[in-house]
Amino acid sequence: MDEALRKKILNLLDEHRIMSIATLRPDGWPQVTTVGYVHDDLTLYFLCGLDSQKAQNLAHDNRVSLTIDHDTADLMAITGLSMAAHAEPVVDRAEAHKVLDLLAQAYPEQDPSKLDIEMPSPEDVRIFRVTPTVISVLDYSKGFGHADLVVLGAE
């Protein structure tokens, strides 16, 4: 991947804080949900409940598809990312704390003392590391429906 495309991907990741992620239910039906995310380079992280349907789905099949984008009034200004990836639970306590710190940094306008709930600890939530295998970089400014495809690893 060339450096300009890498920078574009990282800029899009920096500009957003939520993504839609699709997991596979044990019955084969896809399930899409919106989650907050943080990233460290091209690795994404998200949290969910310990017994959530997402956590159950990922225990069964760790393949995910996701999108990161936003609405715009200008059709030719549509940009975004879609990815095929694998989501693995974070079991290393140091990595889990790093993710929770990144999450707090992602919301600098949020005063933690004004939350009605306590921030979760690694024991309270399931934290997933999302490692992309394919990234599609959507950029309509280069033409209607234009996307650059980046293949990072085996599917």
TrEMBL record:
Superkingdom assignment: Bacteria
GO molecular function: coenzyme F420 binding; oxidoreductase activity, acting on the CH-CH group of donors
Family annotation (Gene3D superfamilies): Electron Transport, Fmn-binding Protein, Chain A
Keyword annotations of the record: Oxidoreductase
Presence of the UniProt keyword Oxidoreductase in the record: yes
Presence of keyword Oxidoreductase: yes
InterPro entries per record: F420H2_bilvrd_red/Heme_oxyg (IPR052019), HutZ (IPR014419), Pyridox_Oxase_N (IPR011576), Split_barrel_FMN-bd (IPR012349)
Domain Pyridoxamine 5'-phosphate oxidase N-terminal: 6-136
GO cellular component: cytosol
PANTHER family: HEME OXYGENASE HI_0854-RELATED
Protein name: Pyridoxamine 5'-phosphate oxidase
Lineage summary: Bacteria, Pseudomonadati, Pseudomonadota, Gammaproteobacteria, Chromatiales
